[in-house]
Write a structure and sequence with these properties.
By secondary structure, the chain is of the alpha/beta class. The chain has helices at residues 16-26, 55-60, 64-69, 108-121, 169-173, 234-239, 242-252, 288-291, 300-315, 324-356, 365-375, 378-389, and strands at 4-12, 32-36, 49-50, 73-81, 87-91, 103-105, 125-128, 132-138, 141-148, 151-162, 178-182, 187-194, 201-207, 212-217, 223-228, 258-267, 270-274, 282-285. The structure holds flavin-adenine dinucleotide (FAD).
Length: 393
């Protein structure tokens, strides 16, 4: 071993959840060590739209302006189209004192980089490429050791955080239970460039005859297209030539006009929720390790921010160098609040996931009717806008 360090918090996983928590904790003076098995940028296809309600949190962490400087752009609401390709309704971003007047979007890996850079500037240490790590209990703390391209290291930490995604190793090593719903249909992601890109960008959802297509703005005028597919179509989508991608999209929605299209990625969506850790020592899961969601409502990453903020605010009641005995009641309080606040987010997101989880939507008549009814009721539209923005109505 060539180094040993004692930190307040060790975080396994330097994705959005781990980096967000590290940013929040280090801005309050806590010592943080981040460890990730990967040394590659984060997966670009994932969470890229930040809810307006997150603006005050990200400003407090000192990264709202950095996200804009890194190329973040503005999205104004969500438009819905019916199976005849007619516009049904636009859900606007509400005017509200506690949120930005637009969604901020930036590629996922850039959001991660901005967060991680800030955490490091604040004093966090981060090891990427730590493929094998081991965890043991010691006197009122955890011992973590790993090997990375920088060599072998060992640290002690008072609080252990598992932010290592849906397949969390921390969860399995600590024997934490999980409830999981696997959706039937994988989500395919394509990247493209539409011939006409409006100056004021919106997220567009097309309820085509068979499936729901989401057209999500990317920076620089690009578009990410997400839709459910049959398991048997996996190879077809992965290997299809560009002309076939155009043809298929045109069949579903002739009003779409893409100049370029490429295959991006395939995801098996899940909704899962881990139990609280009840073993010996101070440990907690967060991010997708704790609460993975179907991407239909763009809430997974935003929930990472929300939860990181809650946990960091609670820990801020302690001073750097806190003991295990001091942090344990804080974790219990966090778990109670987490269960209470997360339940409505998860159930709302799961309902949206189920609605999207079909390749035989039959024109989505029910949903179209609801949206049409909402379009003429200002109070309903406002409530929908507040919810999408991340503010409880
Ligand atoms: C297609 C798609 C689109 C989405 N769009 C949105 C959106 O617009 N808005 C939104 O809010 N959410 C969105 N989401 C959800 C969002 O991307 C996730 O909820 C969020 O990225 C989860 O972050 P995380 O840090 O918890 O997990 P991850 O991003 O999975 O990060 C986990 C990290 O842990 C590391 N790791 C894993 N295992 C280990 C291990 N054993 N040891 C050490 N390190 C490990 C990984 O390398 C990774 O860096 C989308 C998801 C998908 C799939």
């Amino acid at each position: 071993m060539n180094s040993r360090e004692q930190v307040d918090v060790a975080i396994i996983g330097a994705g959005i959840a781990g980096s967000a928590l590290a940013t929040a904790l280090t801005s309050n003076g806590f010592s943080v060590r981040l460890i990730d098995r990967s040394d590659q940028p984060l997966d670009t296809a994932r969470g890229d739209h930040i809810q307006p309600a997150m603006a005050p949190v990200l400003s407090r962490w000192g990264i709202w302006d950095s996200l804009l400087l890194a190329g973040g752009e503005k999205r104004f609401g969500t438009r819905w189209f019916d199976a005849s390709h007619e516009h049904i309704v636009t859900i606007p971003v509400p005017e509200h004192k506690d949120c930005a007047p637009w969604f901020l979007f930036l590629n996922h890996e850039d959001i991660g980089r901005v967060l991680l850079d800030r955490a490091i500037v604040n004093g966090a240490r981060c090891t990427l490429g730590a493929k094998h790590w081991s965890l043991t209990r010691a006197q009122a703390c955890w011992h973590l050791s790993w090997e990375s391209p920088q060599g072998a290291e060992e640290i002690s930490c008072t609080l252990l955080v598992g932010a290592d995604g849906t397949g969390s190793s921390v969860r399995s090593r600590l024997d934490i239970d999980i409830q999981r719903h696997r959706y039937h249909h994988p989500i395919a992601v394509l990247y493209g460039r539409q011939r006409t890109v409006p100056e004021k960008r919106t997220l567009d959802v097309h309820l085509t005859q068979s499936r729901m297509l989401s057209l999500i703005p990317r920076t620089g005028g690009g578009t990410k297209i997400g839709f459910p597919i049959a398991v048997e179509e996996l190879t077809l989508w992965r290997d299809a030539p560009e002309s076939q991608l155009h043809e298929q999209l045109r069949q579903w929605c002739p009003t779409l006009d893409f100049e370029t299209l490429t295959f991006g990625a395939l995801y098996p969506p899940v909704s899962q929720q881990s139990e609280a850790y009840e073993g010996e020592g101070a440990a907690v899961l967060m991010g997708d390790a704790r609460h993975a969601m179907h991407p239909a409502r763009s809430m997974g990453m935003n929930t990472c921010f929300r939860v990181a903020d809650q946990l960091a605010n609670m820990i801020a009641e302690l001073s750097p160098g806190f003991s295990e005995r001091q942090v344990l009641p804080i974790l219990q309080q966090f778990d109670r609040q987490f269960a209470r606040d997360l339940a409505p987010i998860l159930s709302d997101n799961h309902a949206a996931g189920l609605q999207m989880d079909t390749i035989a939507g039959d024109g989505f008549a029910g949903l179209t009717g609801q949206l049409r009814a909402a379009s003429s009721r200002a109070n309903v539209l406002e409530a929908m806008g507040l919810k999408a923005a991340g503010i409880s109505a």
